[in-house]
Write a structure and sequence with these properties.
- By secondary structure, the protein is of the alpha+beta class.
- Helix content is 20%, strand content 34%.
- It contains four helices and eleven strands, in the order ααβββββββαββββα.
- The N and C termini lie far apart (55 Å).
Length: 173
């Protein structure tokens, strides 16, 4: 009997020590400020360098240059851009194994949610080719959110000339 009680408590103890550190938790993976990588590119049609595992939903947009210094061009390939927001990002090397295409969607974030934390907001835009002045934006990672036909798309960018591309590659790989 004594052995069964000890065995029971040992089993309970082992089960209670199970790790709760699940880094694939989708709630954290969809944090609006999280940056898990980016596509570095110099021009709209130039090749891009994949850095990390980008948590982007950018099938309808191209954003360049990335990294950006001074200006950023946002181009839509599926309609007119009506709103654009720049949100300060938090670069983390977490979620490098998650398949973001199964987690992210155009209705994941609301316009209000994005606008409330945006460093820069541009509303009532028209056109599919927008140039954004970033001269007064501090260096670092940002998320660029774009509303096109009531759908929201986004990508991750680095703003600044304090790091060269080799430093960015080294950080993400």
């Amino acid at each position: 009997m004594k052995f069964k009680i000890i065995y029971f408590f040992l089993l309970v103890f082992i089960m209670s020590c199970k790790s709760d550190d699940d880094t694939t938790n989708n709630t954290n993976a969809t944090n609006i400020e999280l940056v898990t990588g980016m596509h570095a590119r110099a021009s709209e049609f130039g090749p891009s360098i994949l850095l990390g595992n980008p948590n982007v939903f950018d099938s309808a947009i191209a954003v360049y240059p990335n990294p950006a210094i001074g200006n950023l061009r946002v181009v839509s390939n599926s309609g007119s851009i009506s709103d654009l927001w720049i949100v300060k990002g938090d670069a983390q090397k977490s979620f490098q194994d998650i398949e973001f295409s199964s987690v992210l969607s155009s209705d994941l974030y609301s316009s209000t949610e994005i606008e409330n934390i945006a460093e820069l907001s541009f509303e009532n835009l028209t056109g599919n080719n927008i140039n954004i002045n970033l001269e007064n934006v501090s260096f670092g990672y940002y998320r660029v959110f774009v509303k096109i036909n009531n759908d929201i798309f986004w990508t991750n960018v680095y703003v600044g000339n304090d790091k060269d591309i080799e430093d960015l590659i080294s950080f993400w790989n």
